[in-house]
Amino acid sequence: TPLVLLTNTSLPVKSLKELVALAKARPGQLNYASSGIGAPLHLAAELFTRSARINMVHVPYRGAGPAFADLIAGQVELMFAALPGSLPYIKAGKLRPIALTSAKRSQTVPDIPTISELGFPGYEVTNWYGVLGPSGVDRKLIERLHAGISAVLQLRDVAEAIVRVGAEPVITTPQEFEAYLRSEIAKWTKLILEVGIRAE
What is the pTM of this model? Predict the structure, then answer.
């Protein structure tokens, strides 16, 4: 599931380039909401501020709901949010989508560009879901579960339902998923230590 960078509709920017320029012109004056310290929405924003070399103020909320409310009301200027939960606000014109955090555009909203294609190659953040079990699970059972879950995700109505809400079904082998997990842990550990993020 990609995240989407959203702004309040009164913020005088309509593109990522304009947003970065405004943030550089007003360092430390733009506020971005998140669903909490260390949450994916917070980490996505921190990764972007480092990539764009801009300084914005983090305003953590207790969940995405209150953050959305204050973003719409103009109490904060922008927010990274999961695409599925953002779609109703985007379609209603209550929030302005600037860019997606995924490596490629979404089938659901193909007109929204990615941060990567807008001058920040390699920037990629997604919410993902996987199936895990306790260590030591028999390899044959893992293969059987993998085959069954993969078959369901390839059913046309299931795949279409997932895409419709702004997500994308991705099937990997157990080995590929393990390698991805390890790369994600390394990526976010590095950022958390560099920024000094601590759970509260």
Answer: 0.91
